[in-house]
Design a protein that fits this description.
Pfam families: CobD_Cbib
Order of helices and strands: HHHHHHHHHHHHEEH
Strand order of the largest sheet: 1-2
Number of strands: 2
Radius of gyration: 19 Å
InterPro entries: Cobalamin_biosynth_CobD/CbiB
Number of domains: 1
GO cellular component, one term: plasma membrane
Low-confidence stretches: none
Mean pLDDT: 94
Keywords: Cell membrane, Cobalamin biosynthesis, Membrane, Transmembrane, Transmembrane helix
Shape: globular
Number of helices: 13
Oligomer: single chain
Subcellular location: Cell membrane
Strand content: under 5%
């Protein structure tokens, strides 16, 4: 049951710590490597493709090898190390805390709310109304349920299951898969802009990797909100969302809460609704937290397939 213990360790650290300081976070260290790629190149697509292939693979190999070595010496230590590594590939508590602060400020100190939104959503907040700020907070928490939690947990479970099927040690492969997904997502967040051709391969890879987690997150949100039909309702509003994935959890939240979510000039989800008020936006954040707990519970059950 070491795999279930690893999931429990990750969940416990998420609950107790939330996220380590940036200077101590391995994802931030990986980001420095990605930053070295973020420059002008004569052949940006070739460089970007090479980086997208090698950097996540290097991260996965390093993490997986460390857990494999620990497994040969002390299985309990290996489970603890795997749990720590899995925790470092996820982010939920800090996201929810930041969103709650922005939503609360939107009703009392709009400039502060706009400033706080910069930590959640990559958009110009200087002209956003209070309702649009709250919409952005709801959108960000819903989208990042997939990016920041479900993707890594799903990779952990599926990676370990696949490894067991071919006779490989499950725990090192599982945690390596989670690290690989987090590395791909980090590269996309740093380089995946139309203005950065070097980031195009990472962006396309992230689109493929996030296909399943985004839709799984939508289902988890629907369950957390007690609104099973909201996923089907969301489908009607997705054409305007540039990402092939992020619209699913965001649209599900819009349908389940019956609110309008809007990125001005880009997309509108549930156009017949109203922008969220403070109470509804805070309820949305709580529901994302519930969906996150469900994700951990399902991951704990999922690793039983390894046996």
């Amino acid at each position: 049951m070491l795999s279930a213990l690893a999931v429990a360790v990750a969940g416990g650290l998420e609950l107790a710590i939330g996220e380590p300081p940036t200077r101590l976070h391995p994802v931030a260290w990986f980001g420095r490597l990605v930053g070295a790629v973020d420059r002008e190149w004569d052949h940006p697509l070739a460089v970007g493709a090479l980086a997208a292939a090698l950097l996540p693979l290097g991260a996965a190999t390093l993490v997986g090898a460390g857990v494999a070595l620990a497994t040969t010496r002390e299985p309990l230590a290996a489970a603890a190390l795997a749990g720590l590594a899995l925790f470092l590939t996820t982010s939920l508590r800090s996201l929810l805390s930041a969103a709650r602060g922005v939503i609360a400020d939107s009703d009392t100190d709009l400039p502060a709310a706009r400033d706080g939104l910069l930590a959640l959503a990559g958009r110009d907040a200087s002209a956003l109304s209070a309702g649009e700020v709250r919409s952005a907070a709801v959108e960000s928490t819903s989208e990042n349920l997939a990016d920041g939690l479900v993707a890594s947990l799903a990779a952990f479970v599926l990676g370990g299951t696949a490894a067991t099927g071919v006779g490989l040690p499950a725990l090192p492969v599982a945690v390596g898969a989670a690290a690989w997904v987090k590395a791909v997502n980090t590269m996309d967040s740093m380089l995946g802009y139309r203005s950065k051709r070097v980031g195009t391969p990472a962006a396309r890879l992230d689109d493929a990797v996030m296909w399943l987690p985004a839709r799984a997150s939508a289902l988890l949100l629907a369950l957390a909100c007690g609104s099973p039909r909201s996923v089907a309702q969301a489908r009607d509003w997705l054409d305007g969302v540039p990402s092939p994935n992020s619209g699913w959890p965001m649209g599900t939240a819009a349908a389940a809460l019956d609110v309008r979510l809007e990125k001005p000039g880009v997309y509108v989800l549930n156009p017949a609704g109203r922008l969220p008020d403070v109470a509804t936006a805070q309820r949305s954040v709580t529901r994302v937290g519930v969906a996150g707990v469900l994700a951990y519970l399902l991951s704990g059950l999922g690793v039983l397939a390894w046996f």
